[in-house]
Structures
1.
Amino acid sequence: MIGRRYIAIILIILFFSTSIASALTLESRLENQNVKNNENRTESNIVPLPSINTIFVDDDQEPGWYNAIHVRTIQEGVNNASRYWNVFVFNGTYYENIFMHEKINLIGEDRNETVIDGKGAGNVVTTLIDDIKISGFTIRNSSKNLVEGCGIYIASNNITITNNIISHNGLCGIRLDSSSNNIISNNIITKNKFLIFGSGILLFESSNNTLTGNIITKNRMGGITLFNSSNNIISGNTISRHMTLNKYYGGISIGGGSYNEINHNIITRNIQGIVIRYSENNDIVSNNIIRNVKGITITNSKHNIINYNNFILNKKHAEFIFEKLTYCNNTWDNNYWNRPRLLPYPIIGKKIIIDRLIWDFKLPLFVKFDWRPAEEPYDI
């Protein structure tokens, strides 16, 4: 009798050991498959392990695949998700306008192959609630009008937009409207244009945002544009080929902003590299400003710092424009001006006589100096 009990106990232990080993083996296979998939995929996202907190979106599965957590459209996935869930979207082209109304992570499988196409109507993605993350998509084809027309429209806080391609939208690739504490990083933002309009990233009355590691190129009007926006960080971006003749816009434009930090960017081949207007206390430090028609133009602005930048091969490196002499009080120090300088480098200031949108008339009436120009370019 005792022998039979021992045998039963041994069989039960063997059964559970085998079950646990099988479960661990399955989990290991799934994890290894994720690792293998991501090693072989460029600029893609990890496919989540099956979880009650993940909804999967695929537009071309067999009918039996679909249920509450396996859906056909991104909006259906967003609608079905609870707070802080993942919505994972498999490769495909989804012709939708997405309204984000829950705090979720929206994840595309591969930013080159997972496309949200707005069909030329409205904003492609709209967020009006805080704490959302969007990554791994191509976002394109918003409306082309002066009312709507953004790839991503943000009127909320704590949003992270990373590792996307945002292109061929109307007014702008990304717009932040009265929005703060957002991160926009490692995106490609290009060819957003409508008539004479089209910015890569537009901030309107928005503060404490970080824009970093983005490639922003060939947008119609400008790369990064700030209106009445302060305390933002613009760092480590490559901004190029913005060819507007509108003097208010350039690679980076700030109008009515203060305490913004512009550092470690590559700003190249624009009509105007940096444009600062009616703004105070901004730091423009350690940037490569290369091969622009104008490197930096500062208009009716004061107490801005322009230090430790490389100005190389611009047709005109720098100028400032003023109505009153109080707008001449900006600091230029330790910049590299295309070649070693034995003498202080002069920055010419021009007095506005006539000011128009496309053209103006100014007289050179003042000069500021970079008293300690760098002898060699910085490694930025």
2.
Amino acid sequence: MTEFFAPDQQTPRHRLAFWNDVICATYAPCEATLGDLATFRASLQVSALGPLVVSNCVSVPITYDRRPVDLRRNPSDDFYAILMTSGETLVAQNAREGLAGPGDVFLYSNARPYQHHSEVDYTCTTLKIPRALAMARFSELDRFCGRVLSGRTPQGRIVGALMQEAAELGEGDPPTAAFLSALLDMIAASIESGLAGVEDRFIGGRNGKLLLQIQRYMRDNMENGDLGLAEVADAQNVSMRTQARLFADAGTTPMAWLQSQRLAAAYAALSERRVRNVSEAAFTFGFNDSSYFGKAFKKIYGFTPRTLLEED
């Protein structure tokens, strides 16, 4: 299903409010500001692709701010990839900022404050990815928020082409879950490859690298339901105390982080029909008790894991 929104039919003084409501409903609560209400024009075409949402936007210069108050009002945590097809915008998140021009892809999450600022007319294609599906594919999701993948790189061109194809898919018959899973795999792999080795100022220094190393080990072994913190610490040559402090500095605990990764991987497998039932999802991703898995899943996502298998 495709929807189209434009503020043209609104009175000039109501156009920005209408547009802000559309943006908040499509993406997440934020504040839109612009210089000249009299010349404001924009349009948005939105299509659902299974659990994904793809949209094409045309707009005059505008600024979007997702502020702390917006996070408290609606703690949405979806992940976004935005392909600039014309014009340019400055994106800032996670103490990073970058200028995205035609062909570039910038990345951000609704889970943290951000700002998009455009001083020229622009067009873009946006792919909205539920956080669980993104977490199942990116080794360290937050490392990519606030970054720009250049369209001059092979990986950037691949991501751009895939996103444009996704936009066309939104106008036709719904693709299969297997196809969407493969599409996300290709986009994620291209982004990770394209941004590999890029300086990370958000998670920096020796401690940051050590934390990422520990997290990679835990992700690689998440299917082991008996994986213990002592085993992880021993494998990474750190003390249990150091391991706990590294996760505390990131605002979590080792076991809470591991469970979030397991739940995200199970969410992706269920929604993409890569498992046949809830029990298989639980045991595949390290839960030794399917009943506990169901309760933990519902607490995080607000519905039971079986719901994903029952969706069309």
3.
Amino acid sequence: MYKLSPLFLVVIIFLGIVHLHAQFMPIKRKVFSIHIDSTINFSDNDYTGQIIKNAFRNRIYNRYVISNDHKESEPFEIKNAINFFGTIFQPKVDLSQIVFNENAFFNADFNKDVDFSLSHFNKDVSFANSVFWENATFWNTHFNSCANFSGVTLKGSANFTGCIFRKPISFSYLNLDDSSTLDFGSASLPDSIDFSFVNNTKTEIDFTRCLFIDSSRIDKRTGEYRPHYINLNKSAIPNIHIDYSHFRLLFKHVKADRSNSTSYVLDTILPDDVKSIYEAVLKNFKERGQMDSYKELDIEYQKYKGSKSVLKWRSWLPNWWWGFGYYKEKVFKHTLEFLSFFILVSFIFLKSLQNNIYSLAALKDAPQNIYSHIGKRLWYSIAYSTSIFLLLSLKIDNLKLQSKPIYILGTLYVVLMHAVGLCCLGYIANFILQK
């Protein structure tokens, strides 16, 4: 019988172990990376089929995990500026989960769907004048610097749900088809948004569905939310939904800085255009039944008109008096303030007012000395001032017209007290009737 040598048995056992290891242990994945040290330039190209994927694979810092018979792509990072100016993308483009650490220029044509979901733009990014022939997805994309979508043409829908915008963004001169939609649901907005000259939208653009829970925007002193400023100059305001709890109107529009194609400067809007924006947004709030927002904006508008008027008091006075009609209860406060003032003056000059200016028969025995019978004198001062302040008319027979300057001033004081009283009574009557 044939006997196996010990060496042969050892070899057989070793090969068996290796085979089992290969069956049950994972193969170590290889990681390939390519790093480009200069700006990545894809400008003025026309990519079809798989060319764009191959271009990224060979020219952008990328990592691939390779297993037995499949290839799996991980999120990767672009460490250099990237330029797609004038590029035409024929196929669907998947640029999701990419970190752009330098400026990115996508002034291009996207003929099919494009996906930037979960990508991070850490420096300025420009899609200015790009054309999206189908849908654009920016789901949970982070824009950590300025984003420029000015002049973009959108044929399909653009999904910005969950996006985080940390610096100013511009959608000015946005061109939309009749069926095009913009979705900003749960997006975190920056301090300022330029949405000017978007005048061809047929569908509603709803900014009230954005996320307003950023604790850094809460004023620690007042507890109020620091609003986002939005420019709606020359836009289709009836189709734009905002509120005045989280937004304020911005009357400056963004212009490209010629010295830096990714930077912007602010340019003031003309006064006539400012008034048109105020009135259009007020009408929009009223038609939507947003009366709290209407009130806040109308007060702001009245203050703006007053600031542009030569007679500044014409705006200041109604605001102080009753908040342009929105805080009518302030009339009671001011009535008591005026009456208290007149009582104090009458307390000091009661003798002269009673004997030489306007006499009331019921107060003939009023104390003559300001330092004596203070309680009685105060009561008579209250009665004297209240009688004149609340009377619907003054009795001419009670007036003692004299030519001395001091008596003329006294007469003017009494007339003023009566006139202010009539004014207060009128506003109080209006308040009661409207209730």
